[in-house]
Amino acid sequence: MTEPSPDPDQHGGFPVFEPADPGPDFGRFLTAMRRAQDLAVSADPDADTWAKAADLAEDLVELLAPFEAPEGVGPAHRVPDLPGAGSLLMPPYRITRFDADGVELQVAFSRYHVGGNYAVHGGVLPLLFDSLFGMVIHATGRPISRTAYLHVDYRKVTPIDVDLTARGRLAREEGRKAYVNAELLDPDGNLLAESHGLMIRLRPGQP
Length: 207
Hints:
Number of domains: 2
Structural class: alpha+beta
Order of helices and strands: EHEHHEEEEHEEEE
Shape: globular
Membrane topology: Peripheral membrane protein
Number of strands: 10
Number of helices: 4
Strand order of the largest sheet: 3-4-8-9-10-7
InterPro entries: HotDog_dom_sf (IPR029069), THEM4/THEM5_acyl-CoA_thioest (IPR052365), Thioestr_dom (IPR006683)
GO molecular function, one term: hydrolase activity
CATH architecture of the largest domain: Roll
CATH class of the largest domain: Alpha Beta
Mean pLDDT: 93
Distance between the termini: 19 Å
GO cellular component, one term: cytoplasm
Helix content: 25-40%
GO biological process, one term: fatty acid metabolic process
Largest sheet: 6 strands, antiparallel
């Protein structure tokens, strides 16, 4: 459900998105869709199988199309207990720490995220870090902010099918500006990538 912002100083022009409870089958649907994404970039069947897969995909589109809804109405990105908060756009992270001192996520990338040679595509990591920056802003109690810039340093190849840890924290504040740092670590604590960015608080009514 979406409500108008009750406090423009906190939310700018953003509506307030409430958590959703679509029932257990939405999680099952997302799990199947994530697996379908992996297979879409890795399967190599014969032409007849592709034809059957296309028919099934078109049937799914036809089934769901009548229920397409505005942003913040459907459950995507509004189910915190599901991987990626219930959004297929997001890597399937889970929040393991969320407080004013920092936010920590557990995440495992898959075939869908491969850029080449079974390594995670470099463009996927800024998406993860940008989402983490937004969580840090929320966890520290700062108002809704937009990303002004985000810089990523790639230190090692990021593997797939491995449980990784992403950590973010507020480095410093200057009025409307919040400087955020983050890193991505493998199970042995090796640094895979690190990021720093600037988040700027929205003015009342600013989109």
